[in-house]
Every structure is written in C-alpha cells, then in structure tokens.
Amino acid sequence: MTQWRNRDAFLRAGLREGTDFIAIDSEAVAAPMYRLAEVLRMGQGKGWTMVTAIAALSYPYFERLVWKRFGDAIRRGDYDIVHRITPLSPTTASPIAAKVAAAGVPFVLGPLNGGVPWPRGFDAERRREREWLSYVRGIYRLNPTHRHMMAAASLIIAGSRHTASEIPERFQGKVAWLPENAIDPARFNLVAAQQLALPLRARFVGRLVPYKGPQMLLDAMAAFLRDGRMVLDVVGDGPLEADLREQADRLGIAHAVTFHGQLPHDAVQTVLARANLLTFPSIREFGGGVVLEAMALGVVPVVEDYAGPGELVSDETGFLVPVGPRDRIVASLQACLQQILADPAVLPAKARAARRIALQDFTWDAKAARILSMYRDIAGPGGQSCGMRATL
C-alpha cells in the first residue's frame, strides 16, 4: 500500500495496481498538510524537520484508511507480516502497530533514518536550512502512540547507527542495522582506472548548500589545485553556486575547478568514473547514496567520519576525516589530501576493496535478501513453510 501521490511512479515502474500495489487516497488530509508544510519550510529544499513534522500530522489518517481496508484480512491471518517501510522518520508514530500485534501478526518498522544532530560550530548552517524544529525534535518521545509502536514492533530496522542509538534501550534487542541506500550495478557499471599520474582527479557530487561542505572543500584543496597536483569537478547545483565560483576566483583555483551543474544520472557516472577520489565533506548526511555509487565505480571516498558516510566507509575502502568546527574540518581534510598526494599508491587497493564491498553488500538484491532473511526469522512456521504474504 502506498499514498496516492506515489501511484504514477509505481505504474511507471511497471507494477500493476490492485495486484502489486494499492494506492490509498488520503489527500483529503494530506493535501492541505502538504501545502502548509511548503509554506512553513520557507524555501524549496529547506526545513526538512518541519516537513516531517507536518507530514506526521496527516499520517494517522493514512493508516486509518489502511486499517479500514485491510484490518479484517490482517486479523484473519491473510498476511504473515505488516512492514511499514515509510515514513522513514522514527518520530512518526504508527497507530495500527498495536492492532497488528494484537492480531498476532509481526509488525516491522524501517529502515528508520534521520535526526542526525548538527555538529557544533554549524549553527549558522542549521538556521540557513530553516531547521528551527530540530531544536525541539526530541519532544516526539512524549507521544504515547510512539511508545506503543516501538513496543508492538517485532523488528525495528535502523537505516543508520545514529538512528539505532535513538531507540530506547528496552527495545534494542529487536533493532537491526541496514543502511537505506544501495546501488544498482546495471546503472553503475563503469570502473575507474585509478591512474596515479598527477594531477589526481577529485569529484564533489551533491547539492550546493553549506552543510554539504563544498566551501570547506575548496579551502582545503586550494593549495593542491593551484600547484597543479589536483583537479576538481563539481557536479550539482544549488544556492551556493555563484559563491563557489567567486571563491574559486578569489583563491586562484578557477582554472582547476569545473562546475558541471546538475547532470542526468548516467552522465554523473561518466564524470565520477574518471576520478581517483570522491571528496565529500558533508557534515549532516543521513544516508550517503553518492558514497556507495562512487565505491561501486572504484572511486575512493574521502568523507567526514560522521553520520551516514562515516558508517559506509572504513580505512579499508577510503578515508575518514574527523568532524569538528569548520576550521578543524578544513585543516583535517587538507592533511588527508596531503597524505594521499604523498603516497597515491594506496588508492588502487582501497578502490578495489570499495568496489568489492559495494557490489557484495550494498546492491538492492543483497539488501532484499537480508530483508527476506529477517522476515523468515520473525514470521514463524507458517511464513517459512510457504510463500510469505506481506502487506507493506
């Protein structure tokens, strides 16, 4: 089951309505809430905590319609599992969780994600992103429906280790970690050559906003770009683009920085696959899909050791830069790049390891297999002895 606004995307993907999916029309409540969220977020792509909070107000109506349509079937045992995949936010309570559990059917949550705290020293970026509600986000824990949902769940899938740490201690025994992002090998099928002759080729891929760190990246790379030891390609657009171009001119590195703007997905792969490094100093990344995409191409990631990217990258597969105030990040990133330039011979081994792990553990098929294994663990004899029936 999915909300009505997703219907066209499901149809475009080739799924059959009424057989593969059912669209639940909760627009009577969802539509005005959506319009309110667009006003209160105060800018496109900003105020995600506000958007999540407003959406949470309309979500119980969606589940009420779901239960009205499927409650009797769930109570009859027509389904082995009920899995709430979205909303991703752990702050959104699920009113039907206790009803499903009372019917003797396992209820699954996740992968839950979000809520990564803003690091110290980035309060200006926090305000610029209109994240006013993030200051009081923890109030959701007072919602009794939220506690009932956690108690009713048979399995809670956490999309990040931070989100897993937010689950109350008494429920930790049913928490499983499974990052929400994955890659499609058919779409990321090139392999970076990892040619080590200077200049080394670095890429930044992402929205050009302060918390993604492109300004810090230019400052950290400036010396290496000026002296010809590195070049940088920037893929993405956003409100910082003009400022970044001016910064590149001011630092005397414009000749070594190429701004591509927003590119189609297949073109992003082409640009990434000509790189040695993905340099991505985002300080508040829930998932880090671009990190996995780079790893799948054999491009070595250089990321902040914080939140999503820091959970996907290890010393075997890339470089982790310690998080801190802005000046410390710039200095640490510069030192890391200096280390790489002093011994670029380490890159091919890291690239091979990154590619191996991405294709082994982080394809959609690999993650689907893990989900199915989790289903079997909680479904009981009936679900294991036949084709499991799950309502989503």
Automatic annotation (TrEMBL):
Keywords: Glycosyltransferase, Transferase. Its EC number is 2.4.-.-. It holds the Pfam family Glycos_transf_1. SUPFAM superfamilies: UDP-Glycosyltransferase/glycogen phosphorylase. Gene3D superfamilies: Glycogen Phosphorylase B. GO terms for molecular function: glycosyltransferase activity. Residues 204-337 form the Glycosyl transferase family domain. This is Glycosyltransferase family 4 protein. It comes from Paracoccus rhizosphaerae.
